[in-house]
Each structure stands twice: as C-alpha cells, then as structure tokens.
Write a structure and sequence with these properties.
Blueprint: E1 4-9, E2 21-28, H1 31-38, H2 41-44, E3 47-51, E4 57-58, E5 63-70, E6 75-80, E7 84-90, H3 95-105, E8 129-130, E9 133-134, E10 139-146, E11 152-156, H4 157-160, E12 177-187, H5 197-205, H6 213-227, E13 235-239, E14 245-246, H7 248-257, E15 263-265, E16 271-273, H8 275-281, E17 288-289, E18 292-294, E19 301-304, H9 310-328, E20 337-338
Parallel strand pairs: 2-5, 3-5, 4-20
Antiparallel strand pairs: 1-2, 6-7, 7-12, 8-9, 10-11, 10-12, 13-19, 14-16, 15-16, 17-18, 18-19
Bound molecules: flavin-adenine dinucleotide and uridine-diphosphate-2(N-acetylglucosaminyl) butyric acid.
Length: 339
Amino acid sequence: MLDIRNNVNLKTYNTFGIEAFCTYFTEINSIEDFLALLKTDIYKNNLKLILGGGSNVLFTQNFNGIVIKNNLKGIEVVTQDNEAVIVRAAAGENWHGFVLWCIEKGFCGLENLSLIPGCIGASPMQNIGAYGVEIKDVFNDLEAINTATGQKKVFSAAECEFGYRESVFKTKYKNQFFIISVSFKLYRQPKLNTTYGAINSELEAMKISNATIKDVSNAVIAIRQSKLPNPAETGNAGSFFKNPEVAKEKYDELKRSFEGLVAYPLPNGNFKLAAGWLIEQCGLKGFEKEGAAVHSKQALVLINKNNCSGKAVFELSGYVLQKVFDKFGVTLEREVNII
Ligand code: FAD
Ligand code: EPU
C-alpha cells in the first residue's frame, strides 16, 4: 500500500548523516506501489529523487519534492549450467548482503566488491568498482521503469554505456529510469583477481596461500576497514572525488616536479592520478572546517566529523578542489551526487 508522508527528515536515509527535509517521502515495496505512485498528483507535480542506501548523495539543502525510497526485495537464480550462473537481485537488496549470498553459494565474481555500502539498484548508476573489478565486468542486464511512461525496459551492458564511475543513468537518461532489478553473470570456477597489490599482501598477512573467494572477500573487507570510515560511526559517502585522468604530457610534467606521484597508465595512453595522494600532498589530511573534514586515513573521503551541514561538506570540497588545482593544475571532479 502506497503511503506518502510529509516533511520527513532524511538524516537516517543518507550515510553522511546530514539533516535535510523533503516535502514528500514514500517507500516502494512492490512494482505496483511504483506504478500507483506514477498516477498521483504529488508525483506528477513535484521533483523526484530515488534513494537506495543514500551512500552516494550529499544533501546541501532541503529537497522540495518527493523522495522515493526503494525497498524492492528478492534474489533469484535465472539460469545456470556447469560453468556460469545468472543471478538477478531486486534493486532494494543490500549490495554487500547480496555479495555474501553469492559467495556462500560459490558464485564467483563479486568478491572484490565486498563491503561497498548501498543497494543493488544504484550499483549500475556509477558502475561501482573496487580492487580491480567494476560491475560492468560481471553485469548481465538490468530492468528499469521509465519514470514518465511507466513502461519497462531491459538494458544490456552496451546500452548502459559504462565508464569509470559513469553510465547512461548519470548522463543522457539522468532521472528518467527507476532501476528495479539487476542481473549478474557469475562463475562456478573462481577467477581470482588479486592484481590490486594490497589484496595479495593482506592474504599473506592472513597466512593464506590457496585463496578462496571467501578469503579474497575477507582480505578486501580488512583493507577497507583499515582506511575507510564506517558510515554507522562517521558520516561519509566514500570517495568524494573521482581519480582524475590526464594526458601523458601533463603526467610527465607532474612526474618531473613531484616525487612520489601516484599514477596508473590507461589503455588510451592517458594516466589516472590518485586524487587521495594529490589531496594529501596539499597538506589537507585531517583538515577540518565547520564540522566537515578530510578523513585522516584516506584523503579522498570527506567526513561529517562534527554534526555538520551538507553545505559545509560542499564548501570543504570546493576548498579541496581549489587547493589541488593551485598546486598541480589538475581539476578534480566530484563523484558524489550533490542534491
Ligand atoms: P544512493 O546514494 O541512494 O543513490 C545514488 C544515486 O543513484 C542517486 O542519484 C539516486 O537517485 C540513484 N539511484 C539509487 N537507486 C536507484 C534506482 N533504483 N533507480 C534509479 N536511480 C537510483 N562506490 C564505489 O564505486 N566503490 C567503492 O569502493 C565505494 N566505497 C564506498 C565506501 C563507503 C564507506 C561509502 C559510504 C560509499 C562508498 N561507495 C563506493 C559509494 C556508494 O556506496 C555506491 O555508489 C553505491 O552504489 C550507492 O548505493 P546507494 O543505494 O546508497 O545509492
Ligand atoms: N593515497 C595517498 N593518500 C591518501 C589516499 C590515497 O597517498 O590519503 C594513495 C595510496 O597510497 C594509493 C593510492 O592513493 O597508492 C590509491 O589509494 P586507494 O587504494 O585507497 O584507492 P583510491 O584510488 O583512493 C579508489 C576508489 C575507491 C575504491 C578503491 C579501491 C575512486 C574515486 N575511488 O580509491 O572507491 O574502493 O580505489 O579500489 O575511484 C568510492 O568510489 O567511493 C570508493 C571508495
């Protein structure tokens, strides 16, 4: 049954723990709820914001519209054979819970993406990635509802146009689709990806030689817990900025001027710079302003250190951007969705 509430505080619905109010708020527990919502005047006449776990949004002001919290649940095996399995999860399922479910069943491919907060439905939005794997590597397809017409559409990987922290849902189809489920192609035989150096070191520290997917998941969890703040204790939305891509000429120039520059070559000849390193070199690790701060263990993460406002986090991000530009001539781009 559709229930629309007025003037709801979103503090517990975003992992920054920022207080912001929305004019209307509703929770979607079934497709029928969403289709019924589409017919209401409140939906037709207001701005809309779909929310999963609220772990990639920053509220800088109240939201004068309707927040639609997605609670669609369910996981099913669609097809399977001796080699592969297609698993579909509803958009409101918790991402990490789903990863653990797959590991438990022996379905391989998601282990490097352990402990990422949020829900299934948001995972294709920015093609979530960590430790050498992005969801595009295991993505099969997704189902979404056109928010204007109520029509269902299936998107293939090619139609999602995945890039680094990018997809069509952040660009040409922004706010036009409500993702209702995502399916993944996983494997029975592990194809472990431990190219990300820290995973091997962590496995060694754990004294594990023949690693299973569960071991890799545990290693990733341990690395993440050592540097990323737990949103249940400290408000944050993970990396606040993307790692910037620069041309080889710019990389060469920086390399000559800054010893220890952290950068990764890309197939197109450009280089990706570690934004956390750039921010740290500006002396900003731990820097705090109006209750918002640069995380002291990972400078790419901004935190709600002392019950700050979303505006304070946004202003801090502007300050960080400026400092990095002044020192390196590199412009950072925000990863988090600013509301
Ligand atoms: P929300 O914040 O609720 O929404 C994000 C965006 O997606 C919004 O624009 C929203 O409108 C839209 N959206 C949400 N659900 C739907 C839907 N069903 N249909 C259409 N639009 C929708 N990200 C990474 O990629 N890699 C990481 O390693 C990583 N680590 C993190 C660590 C921490 C501690 C935190 C707090 C965040 C981290 N993130 C990481 C960012 C975040 O967890 C992911 O972006 C996640 O996928 C967001 O999911 P969510 O459900 O919380 O999305
Ligand atoms: N670094 C520093 N100082 C810092 C932070 C990082 O020097 O304060 C250096 C590290 O020493 C390392 C390099 O930067 O050499 C990369 O750091 P890290 O491995 O922590 O990863 P990241 O590039 O900062 C990215 C993703 C994360 C993802 C990790 C692991 C982006 C924007 N962020 O962070 O994703 O979990 O790699 O794969 O690509 C997110 O998107 O929210 C997120 C957390």
